[in-house]
Amino acid sequence: MKKIADILTFELEAAFEKAGYDKQYAKVTLSNRPDLCEYQCNGAMAAAKAYKKAPIMIANDVVEVLKESVCIEQVEAVNPGFINIILDGEFVASYLGKMSEQEKLGVEEPTKQKTIIVDYGGANVAKPLHVGHLRSAVIGESVKRIGKYVGHKMIGDVHLGDWGYQMGLVITELKKRKPELPYFDDQFEGEYPEESPFTELEEIYPTASAYAKEHEDYKEEALQATFLLQNGHRGYTAIWKHIMNVSVADLKKNYGALNVEFDLWKGEADAQPYIPEMVEYMKKEGYAHIDQGALVVDVKEENDTKEIPPCMILKSDGAALYDTTDLATLIEREKLYHPDEVIYLADKRQELHFVQVFRCAKKTKIINENMELKFIGFGTMNGKDGKPFKTRDGGVMRLESLINDINEEMYKKIAENRTMSEEEARKTAQMVALSAMKYGDLSNQAAKDYVFDVERFISFEGNTGPYNLYTIVRIKSILAKYAESGKDAAKCKMKKPQTQSEKFNNVIEIAFEELAPHKICAYIYDLSNAFNRFYHETKILSEENEDRKAGFIALLLITKRALEACIDMLGFEAPERM
Ligand code: ARG
């Protein structure tokens, strides 16, 4: 369905022309000041220059013509030259009526369906998932779902960190503890054991990492082990597989609890087969050169305002680096999926890395020149003290404990004064807690740091996940009562509304274009507020005029559908009651 903003633009184009101005100035957008109007056109300001006339005069001329429009109830010219528009109720009602007949509530299929890979999650194998990975998972999942809703082919890839130094560290520490294992016997030619050599994977990495910082020879050994692993050492590859099995099972559980699902469980290691050829190619074509022993590709550009160091392809010891695996992964992605676009999520402090990788990939032409590469860098999740989020005793917070804590808090709240079975209360608490956590994160612009304030996030009032869920639950309960009276909500005809639902397709489009889940959060908060105002001002079920009542019900139904579609794009869902 055409967006209302586009329908209005069309009307304004005619009005601009009728008033004697060019129609290029007629663009209408959602209002920045919803307290004043629903839609706005700022074109008079630009037109003023061309026509050497005060913008307000131009706006007034256009407004005069627009008074005849059937879709507009109120239109005014406001200083210095804004055109503020409030829609006609009948027009909105009929628009909503058509919207409700469509599965995607008026969101049109894209003219060209793109294949888009979202690279998110990014957990590091052998290290426990910590809260820093929460943001990647939560924002990435939402971006993926928004793209899918809009109609693109979205592929989510967890892109595990499974090929770096941490693997060498774990191998080295295992060797120190159990040197008798066959993995460390170069003469061994038999089958390696099926059972994992680890019972202590959680502890082994931090221990090894700390030890390496103090002991140079140990560190050397770990670097050497990393190199050997990357070059196909048989025993180390077998250890690596064990680490992967244990880790991935654990990660799947954790991501599952967050309602985060990946289409691909690939990692840096999957890029390895592409590395030797890539290196050869970059050398042969003259892109790469040796700099202080390392193989690098220069990526600085003329207009750079700050120093962009070269992209590192191989370390002086020949080992692959973070840049290397990301580049080779692009080759793999191009080959296997032909994506039109790849979107990466990582801490915004990794921005330079992505600038280097993107430039290098384009410059060396290892990817299709039309492939778009985008980076969503997110800010830090802080505690109430404004410092990175920690446990009470100052340690790194494990994601699992964070989720458990919030579930527990929410359970207490829900169990407090409600008559639900223990089982239902637990399940409901989990759903609501997830909304609290995800909405708490997603409602902020991704690049900003934010304060993870559990108390605020789990509140049923204010701009929170639970508040929005509560709105849905409220609508569901009214609709259920209406159905109990033997009537069909789906057959209700839309009446003059008090809603924001008609903006749905516009908001979703913007959220996708700007890769901005926070815009969907802001929208559902408005929508929930609009609905709750309406709910408090209106007798819905006790309305005696059946026709009017049906109009209210139709409105409820579409509000519910819009809210549910939005929370699904944010990655959580609403319970039946709470
Ligand atoms: N494993 C990385 C980390 O924990 C994040 C990976 C992001 N994705 C990528 N393709 N580099 O920092």
Task: Record the SSE blueprint.
Layout: H1 4-18, E1 28-30, E2 39-41, H2 43-51, H3 55-66, E3 72-78, E4 82-87, H4 89-100, E5 115-119, H5 132-150, E6 153-157, H6 165-177, H7 201-214, H8 216-230, H9 234-257, H10 275-284, E7 288-291, E8 294-297, E9 311-314, H11 322-337, E10 341-347, H12 351-363, E11 372-378, E12 381-382, H13 399-416, H14 422-442, E13 450-451, H15 454-457, H16 465-484, H17 504-513, H18 517-537, H19 546-570
Helix pairs in contact: 1-3, 2-3, 5-17, 6-7, 6-8, 7-8, 11-12, 13-14, 16-18, 16-19, 17-18, 18-19
The structure holds arginine.
Brief descriptors of the model:
578 residues, binds arginine, single chain, four-stranded parallel β-sheet, 19 helices, globular, 10% strand, alpha/beta, four-stranded antiparallel β-sheet, 13 strands
Nutshell version of this structure?
This protein has 578 residues and is of the alpha/beta class.
- Tally of extended strands? 13
Rg from C-alpha positions? Answer: 28 Å
Spatial separation of the terminal alpha carbons: 35 Å
Note the overall shape: globular
- SS-based class: alpha/beta
Bound molecules: arginine
